[in-house]
Specification:
Length: 189
Amino acid sequence: MKKKSPAKEAKVPKVARSNIEAIMHIEQDFLQQRSFCDRISDFVSALAGSLGFVVFHIVVLSAWILINIGMIPGLPVFDRFPFGLLSLVVGIEAIFLSTFVLMSQNRQTHQADHWAHLDLQVGLLAEQETAKILHLVKAICSELGLEKQIQDREIGEMIGKKSVGELAEKLAENLEKTREEQKAPPVNS
């Protein structure tokens, strides 16, 4: 008899379950909206990224070489060394594989952008909700005569309006400074 892991025994709160289901539905909708070409490129990319694909190529390429150097009696040589036909086939395969992989990566990038935008929206909503809660806490403190507690400078900054554009600009400036510092040659003392 198997023991259940503590993680499986713990109950998932209803709110978390509904969030998981919402995420699952978004992901399913995104997968269902893929075009026929997207589905093919995902299939080819998954196939090319598998161990079976590697094993298949090892077997086929080994057989091709062994046949064409005359190591397997009874089978005619059809692509003598330096294996021009093999080079052509492998080159064409590489072109198609790289195209399918790039198509799949483009779709995945689009999907990641979608999730990033959703994450940004959720973050902004959470910040707005937190600011509203702080406003309510400040009002409650005022009502209870706890003026000293609501004079905190950080709380004032947290309650104040924040511009996403300003935050994005500040982040971009800091990232640019960091990149410039990494490019600069080290100063020897």
